[in-house]
Amino acid sequence: MAMAKPYIQQCKGNNGLDKYVLKEARGSSVEVYLYGAHVTSWKNDRGEELLFLSRKSLFEPPNRIRGGIPICFPQVGGLENYENHGFVRKLFWAIDQSPPPLEESNSYRTFVDLVLKPPEGFYKYWPQTYEFRLRVALTPGGDLILVSRIRNINRNGKPFTFTFAFYAYFSVSDICEVRVEGLETYYYLDNLKNKERCTDQGDSLTFESEIDRSYVGTPNKIAIIDHEKRRTYVLWKEGMPDAVVWNPWDKKAKAIADFGDDEYKRMLCVAPAVIEEPLKLKPGEEWTGSLVISCVPSSYCSGELDPKKILHG
Ligand SMILES: O=P(O)(O)OC[C@H]1O[C@H](O)[C@H](O)[C@@H](O)[C@@H]1O
């Protein structure tokens, strides 16, 4: 049987919001909404959903979408007078018709480019002008690639600083059966303890209660191993030295309006980020941060975070 051709399609998503669907020949797919440049779905070639999206998520601007991969910019977390995780996840982005070329883009052909320029009225939240470009790409093998490019276009000669995250919500079978490798023994700021700087011992990170940590200066590769599904997500991040790990657990889940009471069992956020040392851009300068996520069978031994082994057995 001949394989279907890869395609990119614009269509209406939840609540009539515009979305783009990217599909590869072997069946994997990605969906991204113009609202927030928010990736809401990533499926493997068997059609299995790999991202978590809450059944209670509103698709009603100006509310955030709960799940998928929200983009946090110009800051991760809340600051005085600033809303939590910045505002670009609550703005309408546009399709970028002629994006500047990206290096290393020959591993895929299926992609869409989005762009955000600060809308009028947002100056009061953050008095900077910038161009934010996001490429969402799907490789023939089904890997999801996200590339962010942020450029300072201030005309007043002033630099700006920011923090950033791809706040990815992964779908897992049971949070108690999941472990994360690649972060153990690294320092983290514990958001549940007023950002106290802590470190743990152990071979991996497992979960039995609420967690909200910003790991700092982490390796570029992180693996999320789902024992029950025998599935491993491998994250390869560049330009983002930190990583947030979040699960609200039962009590906090009940307090979040757009999150189901029991949904914490089926999700884990692992968010490549820039947090501890904010980035500074002068006018004309651009920052690039990229993330490649693969989903592979869990057939490698604990402690061997060697991507070649993970990907090729
Ligand atoms: O609810 P959001 O604004 O999407 O943020 C999701 C979560 O991110 C963080 O890690 C915060 O510490 C949490 O308090 C917050 O609930």
Automatic annotation (TrEMBL):
One of its GO terms (molecular function) is carbohydrate binding. Its EC number is 5.1.3.15. One of its GO terms (biological process) is carbohydrate metabolic process. Gene3D superfamilies: 2.70.98.10. Transmembrane segments: none annotated. It catalyses: alpha-D-glucose 6-phosphate = beta-D-glucose 6-phosphate. InterPro entries: Aldose_1/G6P_1-epimerase, G6P_1-epimerase, Gal_mutarotase_sf_dom, GH-type_carb-bd. It holds the Pfam family Aldose_epim. It comes from the Eukaryota. Keywords: Isomerase. It is an enzyme of class 5 (isomerase). One of its GO terms (cellular component) is cytoplasm. Belongs to the glucose-6-phosphate 1-epimerase family. This is glucose-6-phosphate 1-epimerase. It comes from Dendrobium nobile (Orchid).
